[in-house]
Amino acid sequence: MKDMPVLARAAELNSQKEERVRELRRESGRPVIGYLCCFAPPEMISAAGAIPYRITGRPGEPTSEADAYMEPYGCSYVRNVFTQALKGRLDSLDGLVISHSCDLVQRLYGIWTYYRPLPYSRLFNVPHQVTPQAERFFMRELGFFKESLEQFTGQEVTGERLAEEIARANRSRALIRELYRLRQENPPLIRGSEMLELLLAGGWLPPEEFQKLLSDTLAGIKKRPAQEPPRPRVLVWGSLLDNTAFYRMIEEAGAHVAADDTCIGFRLFEKDIPPADDPIEALKNHYFINFQCPRTDRGPGRPRFDYLLERAREYNVDGVIGYIISFCDPHKFDYPDLRDYLKESGFPMLLIDDNYSFAPAGAIQTRLQAFIELLKSGGSFSAT
Amino acid sequence: MSASEMRRAKRHLETTRKMKDMLPRFFMRTLERRFSNEPLAWCMVGVPPELLKAFNLLWEWPENFGTICASRLVAPDFIKAAEGDGYSPELCTYVTNTMGYCKIWKDSGEPPEASPIPGGMGNPSMLLGSGFICEPRYKWFQAIATRYLDVPVYSSDPLAPPWDVDPHDPRIAAHYKDLLREDLQGQVEFLEQHTGKKLDLDLLREILALSHKALAYWRDTLYLRKAIPCPMGSTDYFSAIIPQMYMVGEEEAVDFYREIYHEVKDRVERKIGIVEEEKYRLIWFGLPPWFNLGFFNYLESLGAVVAIESTYNVGDWFEVDLDDPLEAIVERTWRRAVKMHEYGTEVMPELCNPAVFGGFAGSRMLEETVKEYSLDGAVMHLTRSCRAVSFGEVHTRNRLAELGVPSLIFESDMADPRLWSDAQIKTRVHAFIETMAGRSTAKG
Questions:
Q1: How many independent structural domains does chain B possess?
Q2: pTM for the whole thing?
């Protein structure tokens, strides 16, 4: 498949995002609020007049600076992100929002705001179960979040303004889904690594600019020549992937990443936030009820993975590759049940357990290749 | 590692030594009821035991079972069985101990032979979880009920305010207390449904009164450890929490804590310490290595006595009005969370514990603790498989350093002895003792 200039542009933009956000901040006069995880809606940040900025790590970078503040046993992603803050790479942030998505991210909030306080910071607390009382709590938490943003930016978050921001974000979601549909083709018309590069740009670009990137990609794909031969199609399930390296490794090993179920992926964009009389209620439904992160206990039983099985069938994948960052308890707990359920449903699964470094690359590559060979032996693929 | 490096604890108090008779008597009573197939709940620490007692339920604590398996050195057998089923070695070893136990049981159809308790944990008719301290506790029972045991589950979900939110703000208090109250109500409804009994509020009130009476004796006992020499050490401390977990609301438990209080008070009055020459007074952070509680005796052999522990503590929060007993549970939970919050919860935020017992790592309370307990140093157990309790120790070490108190952080685990490195840990202990010795010489 030929590389497209628009996708090269996305990669370039992402490589300069820290500088670009500084510029955006200076030009617009709006504060920048960094966030991790998806429970605290970025639409709310925008509606309060601030620029939402999805914080990412730098996989594989040493994190020894974090040793003075946090334990070696802990999520390597959390250590990596905090190292970015300690190195001053996130100094352009006026604020920080961390949702209580998992234990270690929640601990990161305390350590970060204690040692490196910011003008605005908020821990967005999230219940672990979907019960009526948990829904009520989440609604109240959204209310407190809204108030705190209003106090910080001085801009009231009216229902209209929030609805506008939701509509803007939905326009991006619609384009993303259109691109995802092209991945249902065989071979997919856009690579998994390319798709993720685009989504990463959506974590910080102004929506209109992001939408232009998506539209240009859609237009470019129609002119894209040369179909690649069929290869095994995989779905990637797992914890956070905020870098395209892993998808590129899979692609280099000989498979198409046709679908995903990770934080910065279809989990976020599968559905629109429906227009509702109460946009807060709509945000609750989208970011709490429907957001499929294993950190939310949806009760026992394997049907809780049915959404994934449906996606695997919809995207006609041959197998599933799990990617779990070390010490990520919620994903590690789900793995044995998911593995068995997928296997019984005809989808073999490979698990890659990694310390957010994708290293040693040779060892990971060998395992990926072996798995992809296995998938090939089970299907009818021409030699690549 | 060889098993000979692991030492059983030597206790110092007569009262805790008597548990050897008391607990088997209790377990024999419950065994008879188990044989008659009365409802049995497997529960996580954080479920109010008084509520279980009010429903006249039989219950077992898989976490405590994990500590027993650890102390008998059989935990690795179960942990390995769980790992063979796909559970990561990084997961909480209390959890993997239980998962392996369940797997062996499911595969063989019999309670595992290696179980240190006759009959094992029993056949549960329900699982009652509590996620007050960590997320593995939400996923654990979800996984058990998916994979091994087809029984109903209720997982309690109490959240606590982050460190930079004011819990005295009435709106914040209502926000969190509403969740606690509704969650507790859900737990009650679940128990009513699965036991076929209505909650007897009068009985719950009586049980709470007895439970709180026992807790008051326990709290007062712990305060007595401020005395020099310290009258009670960690081997007694970690044993003495058991009656409150199993025999809550029973006169026998109150008698136990009353007796321990009087014994410790007597030792204070007669200036009886737990070592001949008390050279260093320590605070212990984290879970103990249950497979090697003799480690505390080893510290004592070097003249180092643990006067206070960060885990399984109890304060004043149970001093609440019992008129409405369910509201009393909400109130004591919230009061505990607020107190912990005042002490500083920047790295230990999950403190809404409806069962009262629980850890603290409040950074602001360190200053008063260091003074009141005349502490010379801190020993922190960085448990590889329990990040919830040990993550934050580096921060606590930093705060203690500001107070001029040195810390030793060493790595191992609470249940898996394979992670204990005896020579390495002892070398570090010796270096730490030398640090404290140097400081006391410098202080003159």
A1: 1
A2: 0.95
